[in-house]
Design goal:
By secondary structure, the protein is an alpha+beta fold. It has helices at residues 3-23, 135-157, and strands spanning 34-38, 41-42, 47-53, 60-64, 68-74, 81-87, 95-103, 110-117. The protein has an 8-stranded mixed sheet, with no helix packed on it.
Length: 164
């Protein structure tokens, strides 16, 4: 076979390949969505953040026996992330609870992750910051605060009035 004929055959194969590629619809290959619940372990009454990436929709929801159903909203203009937050029921049983994320409406792509409900109650109030202080530290802090208040009042009383 001559080199000219080989070139013509290769050119024909290239043209046929380009023609097939031009008429074949482009189907985007999308990865399965991935979801997270943060923190992964929470006490009853605690709050969790819900996030799903890769839905390709502007709506979604997350459901669990630990907190019910939560609507998810886009975290950016492209709606690549959907976010939400939930409060775990105060009477939620301890143990593993599946959280099902669903993209779009009913029948959308689903992802399930696990939320651990730990025994105990959610800490409220000051977030536990007072729990680790000793009585002496609390007394010293109170004395310093009272001294600062007294010094401020003394400075305000010592101001001389302006005469005009």
């Amino acid at each position: 076979m001559s080199p000219t004929r080989i070139r013509y055959r290769l050119a024909g194969v290239a043209v046929a390949t380009l023609a097939v590629a031009a008429v074949t619809p482009a189907v985007p290959v999308s990865a399965a969505p991935s979801a997270t619940v943060s923190p992964g372990t929470v006490a009853p009454g605690g709050r969790v953040s819900l996030n799903i990436v890769g839905c390709g929709t502007k709506t979604g929801r997350a459901t669990s026996r630990a907190f019910g159903e939560v609507s998810l909203t886009p975290g950016n203009l492209e709606a690549t992330n959907l976010f939400g937050a939930a409060t775990v029921y105060r009477d939620a049983p301890t143990g593993a609870h599946p959280v099902t994320f669903e993209c779009g409406g009913t029948g959308g792509r689903r992802v399930t992750v696990t939320l651990q409900v730990a025994p105990g109650a959610a800490r409220g109030g000051l977030g536990g910051s007072v729990d680790s202080m000793s009585t002496g530290q609390v007394a010293l802090g109170g004395t310093l605060a009272a001294g600062a208040l007294g010094a401020g009042l003394w400075i305000l009383r010592r101001r001389t009035p302006r005469t005009g």
